[in-house]
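Two proteins were folded this term; both appear here.
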Amino acid sequence: MSEAMRIAVLGVSGRMGQMLVQAIGESERCMLCGATERAGHDWVGRDLGEAMGIAPRGVTVSDDPLEVFAGAEAVIDFTAPKATVAHAELAAQARAIHVIGTTGMEAEDLAKLEPAARHAVIVRAGNMSLGVNLLTLLTRRIAAALDPDYDIEVVEMHHRHKVDAPSGTALMLAEAAAEGRGVKLADVSDRGRDGQTGARRRGDIGMVALRGGDVTGEHDVIFAADGERIILRHVATDRMIFARGAVKAALWGRGRQPGQYDMIDVLGLRD
């Protein structure tokens, strides 16, 4: 059996950060070697377990990412776009696998990941779950099979605390639909309708974001034509599916060549 992979969690005090700690602890194939939080956070300098209200873990929360990256084989990052871009540079320097679940990243943020991917493995996905990635494949294939007489709408709902919209998963699904049709999402995206908008343009891909309650994540892809609708749906009820998927991605990255990958690669579903 190979040595357990050393994984660090970035932004460890958040909900996903704490679930990642749990997911790493569940696996015999990896171990938690480090954790970070922003400077000034009250977890910095404390034992991670004590900060979480559980048994001591022997890992001290640090506000120095460089120190943490140096001791890690992989880092898992569900933070914020600006932080993730900075982390990518550090991961490249350390030759550490960088698993990115951060959402809300714009095209300019993604472009800044490219230099880092020349030196390290980056696995980035808007959603780390098996079900959503299967839904992405189905969306691409159905969009390729149907002509633009089928209007495509992506509808997502999340908890009231989510700060970005559309969700990373909704964007991933919309991108898949656009790829299936052989168009660029930026050219056909319709993200909001209010007032006298006029008739829906043929070929547009609509996205609607709903927020409320404690919804973990619900995504529908609707193909609507005269006389029929095809509806693909994924409902997440436990955020641990994302944490376990991220750990799976980190383990998959061991021994891979530098470059950018996604969960389709991790799951072996690439066409």
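Next, the second protein.
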Amino acid sequence: MSEQIPGQAGTEVPVCPRHPGVVSYVRCQRCGRPACAQCQRPAAVGIQCVDCVREAHARTPAVRTVFGGRVTHGRPVVTLTIIGVCVALYLLEMLVGGGLRSALAFAPAVGASEPYRFVTAAFLHAGILHLALNMYALWIVGSIVEPALGRWRYAALYLISAIGGSVAVLLLANPAGFAWVTAVVGASGAVFGLFSATFFVLRRLGRDATQILVLIALNFALGFIVSNVSWQAHLGGAVTGALLALGYVYAPRERRAIVSVATTAVVLALLVVLAAARYAMV
């Protein structure tokens, strides 16, 4: 006795190859296979199956911004992720107390033995107002810089600018003074790096960058007016962000990828060397 297998040649009832047993008389316009309602995708002409649509997307060259970032639709994912982590850590700190800040905040005295603090400090905040101001600024500039540069360069810009802020605190602290053991927290250094990147993005596009310069100047001045604000971290983040942005924004189109990777590696290595040299002098 012979049997007929659903979906194979010779059967009278066509079934979806991705969902065996689901009958479908609608066929993909590209491959001709049956496609059930779950696998159907509207096309310019007729219906295509999800596999053909995925294959077509994979073959389509990625659309890039003028700076080489992959054009994406929707919200800035990296920016929202950073904001989510900062908010989550703030709420967690409220639940567990100051132990979290003691374990993750940066201070020059502990940076050599616990180097992860150069980064983790940028995700902690000293109060709800501190958190709100930094997250608002991050959302404003992140919505501009992330789509322009693309996700990986934007993430590198944020993280390395955060490290640059901590390194500046280290370089400008007196080992015999109170600043050497004072904990520093906040995303301000990283945000200042994004401020610098925004300036170069606007300049590269031929747009007026006066407003961002005023914003940088006003926020930097606050470090000298408002108590308990680390102007050193702001300065370090801004300089680091500027160095990275120069490589990202002005890289030749044909060498954009290698220049961006090289810029990231060189700036990060420079920060490591500066931190190591500072600790070697203590």
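DSSP finds eleven helices and two strands in the chain. Residues 256-281 form the longest helix (26 residues). These notes refer to the second protein only.
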